[in-house]
Amino acid sequence: MSCCDLAAAGQLGKAGIMASDCEPALNQAEGRNPTLERYLGALREAKNDSEQFAALLLVTKAVKAGDIDAKTRRRIFDAVGFTFPNRLLTSKEAPDGCPDHVLRALGVALLACFCSDPELAAHPQVLNKIPILSTFLTARGDPDDAARRSMIDDTYQCLTAVAGTPRGPRHLIAGGTVSALCQAYLGHGYGFDQALALLVGLLAAAETQCWKEAEPDLLAVLRGLSEDFQKAEDASKFELCQLLPLFLPPTTVPSECLRDLQAGLARILGSKLSSWQRNPALKLAARLAHACGSDWIPAGNSGSKFLALLVNLACVEVRLALEETGTEVKEDVVTACYALMELGIQECTRCEQSLLKEPQKVQLVSVMKEAIGSVIHYLQQVGQEKQKEPFVFASVRILGAWLAEETSSLRKEVCQLLPFLVRYAKTLYEEAEEANDLSQQVATLAISPTTPGPTWPGDALRLLLPGWCHLTVEDGPREILIKEGAPSLLCKYFLQQWELTSPGHDTSVLPDSVEIGLQTCCHIFLNLVVTAPGLIKRDACFTSLMNTLMASLPALVQQQGRLLLAANVATLGLLMARLLSTSPALQGTPASRGFFAAAILFLSQSHVARATPGSDQAVLALSPDYEGIWADLQELWFLGMQAFTGCVPLLPWLAPAALRSRWPQELLQLLGSVSPNSVKPEMVAAYQGVLVELARANRLCREAMRLQAGEETASHYRMAALEQCLAEP
Are 57 and 97 in contact (CB under 8 A)? Predict the structure, then answer.
């Protein structure tokens, strides 16, 4: 066949099966076109390439341009099949006098025609062409060649059709399409805008897989987009605001990109804008805040002004959206503003290296208080039917972030809302799977399909724990929480979360938020033990909690890196044991003995004798494991020592058990080996309290202490009570 015949056959693409004309158009009359049917028969019966080309040409004559419908297209496929397009796509030689891509162009045109049928777009014979099609996107050639441009258009139509099938994105990513699209976009050749559109679709559908397969290429695109964004002076900068969130990686964002993005956002948000211009910029800023915290904002005067501007704009937007009646709330924009407010809360409460100056903090706290008031007002209007909506979850999240740092302002409004918050947390706790799905929807609502950076907690209760910890100290809010059943809910939640850390679960893959949540629960329970002891004694849920604490502490104190959680569990258990001392579970059972042995281990290993250069006498120093976290640990340790002291007279078996552990002997030995001047008065008081109660409770303890030079040590440290106790028979 001559090149002229090929060219004539190629007209088929322009008339009937090129990508641009393959969309279903006007259906022909109900009956089939007999001439077309005859030509399709000839196409099916063609014995060689020449006959197939001729038949295709006849089909083109019978079907006018744009006059092909889905059924006709399917009949053409039935006649042609995949074998012929396959040969065209893999052909390396063109007939004499023809461009080398002419056969591949016709093959792509046929494939594009077939791909407009979703069933055919997912066909294995189409999917296995993905690597070949991807190479066409970056192939070099005459940019003005109309046939080559047509082939590129058809290639994008094929790939776009595949992307629209259920498993299509996965096949495209595996076939190297993401890298090819990145290179096509960066080359800014013909069709580069189509490459960007398809990239956006793939990132939206399978962000993690895209980055895993083509991170260097995607980062190159991000650099290009960020630079364009920073330089843009026209409306394109607003379009880029919408695209850029999808191109932020799940890992570290390159510093040069952060600089360009911040500079571009500063220019946009510092101008007078309409809402359609401002909202995408706020959403991009929220995405950066969620991924990078405040690291993307430069230090210094310009950075502090920019952050203050961001938070102020976010607060204004929240108030306008939630206070205006009769207008539909743009939930995605408001949720983005919540993320910016949360950034503001973090910076206002940061003591060191904060981006904000003190007057700026005062001003931002004031505007955020007003915005939080609007959030509370909105939540007060939420009915039962809306409680599972993602936007409600997002609103509870920002309120939780505020209450974690500030409970004194808006106290009346917060107290009025507490019953709703308890019911809401209980509803989501009881439907944990739906709650986790809500957290993903919140992320999608404002940020991106999958978000790097700190995970949005999957339950409302975890969001509220820090605020409730503050509120349980105050009489009014605590009474409301108790009345609404919050303590029982917290006990159930603690036990459920504790299961995640029990043997059989891989604690190394647990997010830090689980352990932090457990610690915060312990703090709330400690508040209740001190301020509402009657509740601990009468509510059965605390008996179950005590049993869990006793069973768990022995293994917990042995685990590396979990000392702070062990301190919380030990101290809480000791304080509860004082209140529940008459419980059968605490009468020397194996569980209670194991718990107190573990508690003694925690309390006794905090300090050691450490030699000092140039001195004959050692000094009392923190153990290596305790030293790095003592600022967070010391209050719990002192409270634990006090609680253990209180348990000794209430549990007759405890003093002999402590003696068998050799704690009192080793404690006296430690004090005798260090300089008294190195032991702080509060440490002396804590040690004396334990030693005195053990000595009073048990004669054998007194004798063991005397043998360990207890009277002499008591005299050196001016422990009058211990000295007097040991002087008695």
Answer: no
Q: Would you say residue 446 has pLDDT above 70?
A: no
Over 60: is that where the pLDDT of 97 sits? no
In the beta sheet, which residues pair with residue 607? 622
Predicted TM-score of the model (pTM)? 0.84
Cα distance between residue 276 and residue 294, in whole Å: 25
Q: 421: phi > 0 → left, psi -120 to 50 → alpha, else beta; which?
A: alpha
Q: Are 576 and 544 in contact (CB under 8 A)?
A: no
CA dist., res. 81 & res. 194, Å (int): 28
**The pair of three-digit structure tokens given for residue 314, joined into one six-digit string:** 């976010």
Q: How large is the average pLDDT for residues 31-39?
A: 70
In whole angstroms, what is the distance from residue 684 CA to residue 668 CA?
11
**Tokens representing residue 624 in the block:** 């290596």
Q: What value does the mean pLDDT of the chain take?
A: 86
Q: Is the pLDDT of residue 538 over 80?
A: yes
The one-character DSSP state at 508 is G
Residue 178 banded pLDDT, cuts 50, 70, 90: very high
Kindly report each contact of residues 525-529 with a partner whose C-beta sits within 8 Å and lies 24 or more positions away, as own/partner: 525/490, 525/494, 525/572, 525/576, 526/571, 526/572, 526/575, 526/639, 527/469, 527/472, 527/473, 527/478, 528/472, 528/478, 528/487, 529/572, 529/575, 529/576, 529/579
The span from the CA of 340 to the CA of 632, in Å, is: 29
| Cα 258 from Cα 7, distance rounded (Å) | 51
555-728 has which fold?
Answer: Leucine-rich Repeat Variant (1.25.10)
CA angle at residue 642 from 639 to 647, to 5 degrees?
A: 125
Distances from the Cα of 201 to the Cα of 178, 210, 442, 494, 504, angstroms = 11, 11, 20, 41, 40
CA 499 to mean position of chain CA atoms: 22
